[in-house]
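Batch job 17 of 40 flagged for manual review because the log was empty.
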Amino acid sequence: MKISEAIQFIINIEKIKTKHDLDEWCGDVGRQKLYLYVQKLASDHWSKVQKPECVVRAYYQPLLKGYKRCNKEI
């Protein structure tokens, strides 16, 4: 599985639609919860990328309302 596929899977399964939803889901742990989940699902791709956390952010921000990079209508 690729990082982008892992993020799409997590967003769908956890019903995350906005930055606020992601903040609530991550809780006190912060984005580390998301990074660990993605790392488990896409371990091969994760290990091949120099800065996987940056790649994760680049994929999820356009998908969620509340980010400047969001591609969805608000």
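Reviewer: the log was empty due to a logging misconfiguration, but the result itself is present. The chain has five helices and no strands. Unflagging and moving on to job 18.
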